[in-house]
Every structure is written in C-alpha cells, then in structure tokens.
UniProtKB/TrEMBL annotation:
Source species of the chain: Actinocrinis puniceicyclus
Name assigned to this protein: tRNA (adenine(58)-N(1))-methyltransferase TrmI
Pfam name, any one: TrmI-like_N
Record-level Gene Ontology MF annotations: tRNA (adenine(58)-N1)-methyltransferase activity
Function field: Catalyzes the S-adenosyl-L-methionine-dependent formation of N(1)-methyladenine at position 58 (m1A58) in tRNA.
EC number assigned by the record: 2.1.1.220
Residues covered by region (Disordered): 1-21, 276-321
Keyword hit for Transferase: yes
Amino acid sequence: MSETPSAPHGAEHRRGPFKPGDLVQLTDTKGRHHTFPLQPGRQFHTHKGSVDHDALIGAVEGVLVRSSGGMDYLALRPLLADYVLSMPRGAAVVYPKDAAQIVSMADIYPGARVLEAGVGSGALTCTLLRAVGDSGAVYSYERREDFAMIAAKNVRTFFGGEHPAWTLCVGDLVSAIRPQEVDRVVLDMLAPWECIDSVAKVLVPGGALICYVATTTQLSRTVETLRDHGRFAEPAATETLLRTWHVEGLAVRPDHRMVGHTGFLVTARRIADGVDLPPRRRRPAKGADGEDTWAPDAPGDDREAQSAAREARLARRGELP
C-alpha cells in the first residue's frame, strides 16, 4: 500500500481553522488590510479599537470579528500577492504582476533548480519557492546583509519556518557563485550585464535567463550584452501593465489609477556550447547603427547612392534578408 504523500512545506499554515503562528489579514469596510501573525493572549490594536487574537484562533477563514470600538473586520489568510505588498521592506519588492510573469515566461516548474540574484526583501523569493516546491532548489544571492536578514525573516514568516528548498548566500554573485548547474536564472539587480558570463557557466543548455530591470538604458545594455555574448539565443524584452476596473451595475469603467511601469523583463535561452547562431535576418530600425540612414522623402538626396551605402553597411553586419 503506497504511503500518503506529505503536504508541501507551509501548506499546514494555509488551510483549516486559524492556528497560533498563522498569518491573518483583517479587512475593514473601506477595504484596508491589516496583516499579522496570531499569538495566544495578544491583541491587535487599530484606531477603531482592539481585536483579541484568541477570538480568531480556532475560527475558520471568512468570519467576521468585531473590534472593541465596534468595527467589523473580515478575517482571511493573506494571499501571496497581499503578503508581499504588506511585509516589511528593505529594498523595493518585485510586484506580483511581474513575479507572475517571471514564473510563466521563465517556465519555472516544480523541481526546478533556480539561481536568484538580488533578493531584496524576499518577495520574488517567496514566489520562486512556491513554484519549485520542496523538491526544487532556489539559490539566492544578496550583496547586502541587512537586506538578506529582512528577506530571510519574511520568507520564514510566510512559510511558517525555514523552507527546505532555499539556500541564501550573502555576497557578490560573480565572486560567490557556486559551480552547481541550474535550470533557470533570475537576475534582479542594477547591472545584470556584469553577471552574464558567470551565470552562463552554470546555466544548463536550454535553460532560461530572465532579467528584471527598471530603465530603458539598463534594458538596452542587457539585451546587447546577451546578443554579443554568443551563448544565448535572441533575447525578448517585455513590460506588463496592470489596470483594474470599477464595476457597479452598469457603471463599468477603468479605475482612475493603475499599476503602470514597474520594470522590464528580458528573457533569453542558453544555447549549447560550440554552437554559432546564424546572424539575425531582421532589418534594424533606422538609426540603430548610429549612422544617418536614407529618408525617402528628403529633398536633394542622392537616393541610389544612399541606398547602396546602406545595403553595404547591412551586408558587412550580415543582416541583409
């Protein structure tokens, strides 16, 4: 008779009645959230009075609890997206919309071995650990010890203890990287192009690299570094914008505020050693090579001469169709 598989780490804190140590999220009538761990004998204080922790311990999710000031709160466990926006921060967090894209676009699966650089406050780390599960591995690198301590506490709080798949290393990625192979690499740092060569040595052929950068200058340099490196397929750059909607009866419209630009994602696949990719056959945009290009409607131009010069430049770069 086969044994019943054990529950994934942290699952016991995500289901059933509230227990001591569980996270609870109280939502008031205006939609404001208050998140805290339950401890016997303690109280949670708000400007609308206090709520006894003991009134929640043993209760099921979705109940209403009333404060001493007469305010009703809806009690639920926080979703991961709620938790990362309310947890203590050292560095800015990767927003849930970007974390979801990272897991999807990098195809981070249960059992995957993931290298993460730039832990920050641990928001993306929680998402990666959820994706790889207990059988996977997340190797996280963080330069700043104070950020690493905040991230470690946030991860422990969310999962209810140390996660068996997580290894945290304080130090610079290039100098501290370990030689073990990984299936995916996630870089959330100021200058990811400085680490491309190091991560290429541990990323398996076919593995995915994804970089999270904030500005267009970082985006350009990261993409060009990957193109010039020679061990990655053509990178793809994306941005995700999230807009909520107001819905009340027939009053249906976009909300006045949205989560707009937070960062760009650059994704590239590792190719096998010894493989030389054929040159790209995509025509570059006008001015991409830093030289003036022919404008068809410009008066007084020698069109044939300029067209021939442009084709010669493209031929030298191997980018003619």
